[in-house]
Task: inverse folding
């Protein structure tokens, strides 16, 4: 299995300038290729392939105006054309929207190097056009005998530099787990398990809201284009990065525990993008990061193997309104109702009851291979 290991590194001033030039050239080539493909389709209804854009890149390098493209490594430039081809393939397959132009103001900038664009020797990584290896902070070791196949260098809005190393490795053996669990996502409690355990929502963004608002007001007062504005922008970005890091760390620990202890995990197929359009819930839903939670669960279940699976039940399944004891449906269940009693006499905690129903529905899906509700067009 191919796995990527991400590390922070600290470039020298010379390396920093070389990487910044590479980022700029990658952005320019991507935008020019996207413009050429868009123009060809709108004017002539003609599709431009990756080979065509690669030939265009060769021509651009031979002009006086764009001769500087030859000063950086050609590998990231070719890779950005492959990324554009993949973006168009996703668009034509209706999996993604139309590719957009890259902006120099974008928070994250990156460049990808394949095997011919770097040297890996004695545990040190040297990128093309650089005379010395980059100073990587090895927060965890690479697998024994692993040889990098792709290296991606990136810089975030907080001016932190990262390198992601893709290697092919054997996933460690993990014994099958015996547990099954249903998971109900929420705001007050981040997760409620069918075992009646409630995991508190840390609300990382709310805890930093005052400091963030102060930094944003300070940014708004700075003159555009000034160095002080750039310093204030980086301060805001560092606060956002601190929030995101803490949130990601919490989700990693939580998902690893769930996958390690359970063979089957059942969750809801939530319409997160729709919830983010709700002005009253958007901030809390974004801070909870339910999409990130589901993504981590799914790829970690694949890593651990041995039949571990993550089942998503239909988003319209009435998990909150259904009694987990008798199966009766309540007429209405406003969000303000946290505890209720069914006409069969069973008293329910809203979230625990929903988690139990989600688990039952997921096990039914696993047993019969059918959906929780009839397929809708």
Result:
């Amino acid at each position: 299995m191919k796995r990527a290991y991400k590390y922070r590194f600290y470039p020298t001033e010379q390396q920093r300038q070389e990487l910044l030039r590479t980022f700029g050239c990658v952005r320019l080539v991507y935008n020019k290729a996207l413009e050429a493909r868009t123009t060809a389709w709108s004017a002539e209804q003609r599709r431009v392939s990756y080979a065509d854009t690669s030939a265009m890149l060769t021509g651009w390098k031979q002009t006086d105006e764009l001769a500087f493209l030859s000063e950086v490594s050609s590998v990231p430039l070719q890779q950005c054309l492959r990324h554009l081809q993949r973006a168009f393939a996703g668009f034509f397959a209706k999996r993604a929207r139309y590719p957009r132009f890259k902006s120099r103001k974008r928070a994250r900038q990156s460049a990808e190097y394949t095997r011919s664009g770097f040297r890996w020797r004695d545990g040190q990584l040297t990128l093309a056009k650089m005379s010395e290896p980059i100073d990587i902070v090895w927060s965890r070791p690479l697998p024994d005998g692993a040889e990098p196949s792709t290296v991606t260098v990136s810089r975030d809005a907080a001016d932190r530099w990262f390198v992601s190393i893709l290697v092919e490795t054997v996933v460690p053996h993990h014994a099958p787990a015996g547990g099954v669990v249903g998971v109900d996502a929420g705001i007050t409690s981040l997760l409620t398990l069918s075992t009646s355990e409630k995991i508190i929502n840390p609300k990382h963004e709310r805890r930093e809201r005052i400091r963030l608002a102060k930094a944003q007001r300070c940014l708004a007062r700075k003159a555009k284009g000034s160095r002080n504005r750039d310093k204030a922008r980086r301060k805001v970005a560092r606060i956002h990065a601190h929030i995101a890091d803490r949130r990601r760390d919490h989700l990693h620990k939580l998902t690893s525990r769930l996958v390690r202890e359970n063979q089957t995990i059942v969750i809801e197929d939530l319409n997160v993008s729709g919830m983010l359009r709700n002005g009253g819930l958007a901030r809390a839903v974004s801070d909870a990061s339910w999409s990130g939670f589901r993504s981590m669960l799914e790829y970690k279940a694949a890593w651990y193997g041995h039949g571990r699976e993550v089942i998503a039940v239909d988003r319209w399944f009435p998990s909150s309104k259904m009694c987990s004891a008798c199966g009766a449906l309540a007429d209405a269940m406003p969000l303000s109702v946290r505890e209720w009693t069914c006409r069969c006499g069973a008293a329910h905690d809203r979230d625990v009851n929903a988690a139990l129903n989600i688990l039952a529905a997921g096990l039914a899906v696993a047993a019969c291979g059918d959906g929780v509700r009839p397929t809708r067009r």
About this structure: The CA atoms of residues 10 and 242 lie 18 Å apart. The chain has a mean pLDDT of 91. The two ends are 36 Å apart (CA to CA). DSSP finds ten helices and 14 strands in the chain.
